[in-house]
Each structure stands twice: as C-alpha cells, then as structure tokens.
Design brief:
Blueprint: H1 2-20, H2 27-48, H3 51-76, H4 84-101, H5 106-128, H6 133-153, H7 155-158, E1 164-165, H8 181-202, H9 204-214, H10 216-221, H11 226-252, E2 254-255, H12 262-275, H13 282-297, H14 305-319, H15 324-336, H16 348-351, E3 366-377, E4 380-391, E5 395-399, H17 406-413, E6 421-426, E7 429-430, H18 436-439, E8 443-445, H19 458-467, H20 475-488, H21 498-512, E9 516-520, H22 528-544, E10 548-552, H23 556-562, E11 565-570, E12 573-578, H24 580-584, H25 587-592
Parallel strand pairs: 5-10, 5-11, 8-9, 9-10
Antiparallel strand pairs: 1-2, 3-4, 3-6, 6-7, 11-12
Helix pairs in contact: 2-3, 2-8, 3-8, 3-11, 3-12, 3-13, 4-5, 4-11, 5-11, 8-9, 8-11, 9-11, 12-13, 12-14, 13-14, 19-20, 19-21
Amino acid sequence: MNTVNTMTARAGMAVEERAVKPRFNSDLPQLWIGIALIAITGLGPTLIGNTYWVHTFQLVNIYIAASVFQNFLFVDAGQKSFGQGVLLGIGAYVTAIAFGLHGMSFGVSALLGLGAAILGGLLFALPALRVQYFHLGFVTLSAAIVFPQLLMSLDKWTNGINGISIKLDWIHGDLFLGFSPLTLLVTLWPMATLATHYGLRRSRLGRQMRVAAVSPEAARTLGIKPGMMRFTAFIIAAIGTGICGILYLPATGYVSPQGFNVELSFVFFFAVVVGGRGQMLGPVIGIWIVFILPNIALAQFVEYRLLMYGVLTLAAIMLFPDGIVGSIERWRVKRGVTGRGEQAFRVDSFLEGLEGTQEHKPSDDVVVEVKGGTKRFGAVVAVDKVDLKVRNGEIHGLIGANGSGKTSLLNVLSGLSRLNEGSFMINRRDCTRLPADRIATMLGRTFQTPRIFPQFSLWENLKLGMDARTEAPSAGILRLAGELEAEFENDSAELLSHGQRRLVEVMRAVLKEADVVLFDEPAAGLSSSERENFAKLIRFLSRRMNKTIILVEHDLDLVWGIADRITVMEQGRVVASGDPASMATDPAVQHMFIGGRRA
C-alpha cells in the first residue's frame, strides 16, 4: 500500500512539475503581443483622427510584414539575403506599370505584380542552390544596388526617374468608424504574416528548414533536401514580400526608383537584428526603432538615415547582443527553462512502453551488401575494395583503429559520399548512385558529434525522427512519441551532457523506425550506466523491433557483448570478419588491439 501511495505521489509531483514548467520558447505569447501592437498602430491613428499618422503607420505595418519574411528567411531558413527590398519594389512597380500606365484592373495588376515578385524570388533562389551564408548575401546585395539603376535605365517601361502615380479612390474610402479598406488590409496583413511565421515554425516543413540551415549533412540523413528547403524558403518570402509591394502602391500612391534604394533592404535586415533574430516580436520592435526613429522622430536629419541605421544597429547590438526581444528571451530561458541535470534524458524508462513484441533472431537474408567498395580522397584511399554483408536483424560491429575507414564506409552507405569503385545494396536495391535523402528512407544514422539543435526543445529534437518518416508510425511508436512529448516538450536540449545528446540521437532513430540503423561511435562519452542502457536499447532494436544494426564503436567490451558479427578494418580494408568468439581468437585482431584481452 505504501508503495502504491509513493508511486501516486511521484506521479502527482511529475504532473505538477510539467504544469509549472515554463515554456521552452515564448513564440505564442510574442505572436499575440505582436498582433496587439500592430492593431494599436494600425487602427489607433484612424480612431484618433490623425491623417498624418494613419499614412505613416500604414507604411510602418507594410515594412513590419516585409521584415517578418526577412526574419523567416534569415533565421528559419538560414539564408543571408540583403535584397528583400528588391522583391517589394518589383511587386509595387509591376503593379503600378500594369495599373497606372496600361489601364489594367487593379486585381489583374496585383496578380502580375505578385507573379513578378515570385520570379524575382526564383532568381534569388537559384544562387542559393550554389552559394551560402554571406556569399549569398553579397549576391542579393548586388541586386539591391542595381535595382534602382535598372528602373531608371528602363524608362520606356518604368517612366524612369519621374516614377508612376496612381489613384485608387475605393481603397481609401470610408467603410466604418473611419476605417478604409487599405487601413484594414495593412493592419491585417502583418498580423497574418506573424501567424504564418508561427505556423511555419511549428510545422514539419519549418523544422526541416531549420535543420537544413544548421546542418545540411544531418538534414540529408533525415530525408531532407537542403537545396529544396532553401528554394522553398525564398519562394515563401517572395510571395509575402510581393504582397507587401502591392500594398505599398496604394499606401503611397506613387513609385519611383528613389523609393527602392539599397537602404530599404538594409531597413528590413537591421530591423531583424535590432529586434532579435528569430523572435516573433523582433520585426515589430525592430521596425519601430530602425524606421520610425530616423525617418519620423529625427526627420530633420533625413539625409543621414544610413548613418543612423548603422549607429542604431551598433548601439542595439552593444547593449543587447541578441537583439532587444532576443536578449529578454535569453534572460527568461536562463531563469526558467532547465534540463534536469544527469537525469535529463534516460532511455530505459521509455523502453518499457515498447515491450510486448515478439523476439526476433537474425536471419540469413542479406540486407546491406558492399561489393568492392573503394572511396578515395585525392591520393588517400579511405575505403579500399571492401566486401561486406550484413544480415537482417543482426547487430554487426565494425571496429578498427582511428583512420581505418569505418566512418568513411558509413558515409558511403548513407549517401553522404559516393564510391569511386564498386557498389552497395540496401534491401536488395542498388543504392550506389542514390542521393542521401533517398537512402535516408531506408536507414537511420547517428554521428560521431551528435546533431542536436539548440533552437529546438528536447522533444522537437526527437520529433525530427517522426518528421523523417515516409510511412505511418506503429501503435507502439505513437504511444512512445506521446510519452516523450509530455515529458520533454519544454526541456532544453542545449543543457544536455554529451552522453545524453548521443542517446537523444539514438532515440530519434528509434522514432524514425528505419529498417537499418547506422551508429557511429554512439557510446563515446557515456557513463557506465548510460552504456548499459544503450546496450539494452541496441538489443531491443535488434531483437524486439527486428532492426539491422551496423555499429562503429571503440568500446570493445560493448561490441563483444552485443554484436552477432564483427568486421575488423585496417587502413581502409577488411582484415577479418566473423562471430565474436572467432574474432576473439583471430591473430589479426589480437595484433591490432594490443594486450589480447578478448582472447
């Protein structure tokens, strides 16, 4: 009875702990605060009856929406673009040309403007497939510099330096309480952009984009195409920024090349940096500081705008290294979010939830087969004419000294590098020339340095395994996922120890339920109890879930304790292969591992 009461009390404490645990991130509260601030600045001037501020904050709200997409592109997609002002300008100018110069309806003109902005996004996306980070930034910056010059050069179509004026009475008409359709549109659109950013961030696509931005290598082993993620991000940002350009036209009633100088792109970029990179509320606060202060509060010094942009950004970074909202968020996280120390993540308690499946034994079916595999890096032969067979359901240990080619062989099997000679098959399918994201549908992979993403909670790091699935999860995995989410939804992965990070990566592979799992030195950095839990997990994957395991490991006790077969590599070649008993007495193995302690 006492035991039952104790267990009930512990369960109640666990529920209470989860109930009071602070959010891992404050995206949702920031979303609602941002919507409230946009509503105040968008609708407030009309209620007050101040025409000057109505026009001013219409432009401010448009720039907030554009900055939201800059924030998404910069942080979530990892793309350093300094050319978002160009996309806004394209949307505005093409709409103005069609409507103001050619007399088309505003609806058709807006669609043409949006299409042109998307084409501009495509032009930005193409370099993103080849170059990255600030190299990409320089490419987009060049577009921002050239764009106004291009508008003046094409004066036959753009009306040159004179610009284009438009008149659109209906969009400025009074609907109710003094609100015009334009006022409502430029208030609702930035709200919608914030909500879109929030939804993307919580979606499978959003998580995959962030993984591809941080670690393209890990992304490919999770079935993600980094190039496609970058391409998609640019198109999303182009659509959103193009709509901002369409709204810009009736808000100003006029477009000219001077309105789309390079400083406009700087405004969006600096707003993200000053407000806080990656923060939902960052663009709102950033635009208020970067745009309103120099252009309105200090309007008499308007010719020094670029200087003020730089000074404001420098001052904000010096005072708030993570931006204003970002610094507040970091303080909140440090104060509240925890990782629960040495007990932050344990595997054994969750294995019990998957019990009940039948015992499996290794069969004679060959699941992974390498024939004459050779991989060269210049003059260095990392994998030298390797022949390897791994049978269904077995735990296959791959051992050897550092530099013997073990990890290079795993990279070949997972598609991260390609063989110069030979071939390999997985599940009787020739995978020699398949890209990593295609091979990822057949296997799971861990790395020597665990791929943990601090911007995600501990549960979100695990959920990447669910995101990588191509089929519906089994009932046991669904139950396990539910337990993991309830337990770790608001825990920080950044606070995990090295050994715990390895176990998280292993559990990610479990949630993926791949038929073949490649482990690259997973026990390195684990304590003795963690190694014991890991050994149980490997046996469970093999015997209960019928997974085929290829285990690269230097801990010989662990390998000999759980492996069904062992292959020994030296200088890129296979020098011995067999069951643990025969390997323990093999002279080649004893010679390699001095002391012969397994003999």
